[in-house]
Amino acid sequence: MALNTTFKAIADPVRRQILEELRQNRQSAGEIAAHFNLSQATVSYHLKLLRSAGLVTVTKEKNYLYYELNASVFEEMLTWLYRFSGKQGDDNNDEA
Amino acid sequence: MALNTTFKAIADPVRRQILEELRQNRQSAGEIAAHFNLSQATVSYHLKLLRSAGLVTVTKEKNYLYYELNASVFEEMLTWLYRFSGKQGDDNNDEA
DNA sequence: GAAGTATTTAGAGAATTTTCGAAATAGTTT
DNA sequence: AAACTATTTCGAAAATTCTCTAAATACTTC
Predict the structure, then answer these.
(1) Torsion angle of alpha carbons A27, A29, A17, A95, nearest 10°?
(2) Which of A90, B63, B64, B91 places its Cα 20 to 30 Å from the Cα of A76?
(3) Which PANTHER family does this one have (chains A, B) (predicted)?
(4) What is the pLDDT of residues A27-64, one digit of tens each?
(5) Do residue A84 and residue B72 have CB atoms under 8 angstroms apart?
(6) Are A47 and A56 in contact (CB under 8 A)?
(7) Nucleotide D13 C1' to residue B86 CA (A)
(8) Is residue B90 part of a domain?
(9) Which residues does A67 contact at the CB level (< 8 Å), separation at least 6?
């Protein structure tokens, strides 16, 4: 359920690029949008998906919305993937 | 480029379930299809995407095509994700 | 409180993805 | 080689995702 949303969120190249941007430091929606050749509305749409996947969190300051990474959700994906990497990890099969 | 194909491949729940199935043991296309409420053609389509993402390999035997996991490609995804997991991994920024 | 700035939401079109049934391919068995 | 089995490919419909412009929200500053 949650994992599905998360994997879908990360499947889009624009959204992965946004995550890369945020890896450096938190940024406002406008700053993020400035890195792309897309409308502000489109970037906002991508940010919404990242938010609902839990990959980023938002904090309001003045009239800016600052986005930053939320590391813990990445770890869920890592856990899921790790079981396939030949390391013969735990056998939990939930939530494919 | 390759990473994009791989992340897209893993974004679909049917395909993730196929990977789960293959984690137990290799299976023919028909065996895989039997686990789903989908036509053989549809499962074949998903298998093609998994194949072109490099997540599975195929070997022919009699007139069966056996699919099995290819662990190494999972590791590429793990590497990409790991950098976001708070562990402050390497700084390589290629191929978002 | 009016004007301005930052951002999201709404509505709609374009593009991509998923699905199916039918036909094609390829190998096997008799 | 004819009939059978396993699987893929084709063509098209349905569903989902991505994008845009325009309008709405919400906060700040003058």
Answers:
(1) 100
(2) B91
(3) TRANSCRIPTIONAL REGULATOR, ARSR FAMILY (PTHR33154), TRANSCRIPTIONAL REPRESSOR SDPR (PTHR33154:SF33)
(4) 999 999 999 999 999 999 999 999 999 999 999 998 89
(5) no
(6) yes
(7) 45
(8) no
(9) A18, A22, A26, A27, A28, A29, A32, A47, A50, A51, A56, A57, A58
Q: What are phi and psi of B63, to 5 degrees?
A: -105, 40
Answer whether B77 sits within 8 Å of A74, measured CB to CB.
no
Give chain A positions within 8 Å (CB) of B6: none
Which region holds residue B60: left if phi is over 0, alpha if psi is between -120 and 50, else beta? beta
The C-alpha of A23 sits at a distance from chain B's nearest C-alpha, in angstroms, of 7
| Cα nearest neighbour of A78 on chain B | B78
> Residue B88: inside a domain, yes or no?
no
C-beta of residue B49 within 8 angstroms of C-beta of residue B56: no
Domain harbouring A75, CATH code: 1.10.10.10
Is B96 contained in some domain? no
Out of B4, B85, B93, the one facing A75 most closely (by C-beta) is: B85
Interatomic distance A93 CA / D8 C1' (Å): 30
pLDDT digits (tens, 9 = 90+) for B77-93: 999 999 998 765 455 54
Domains in chain A, number = 1
Inside any domain, residue A91 = no
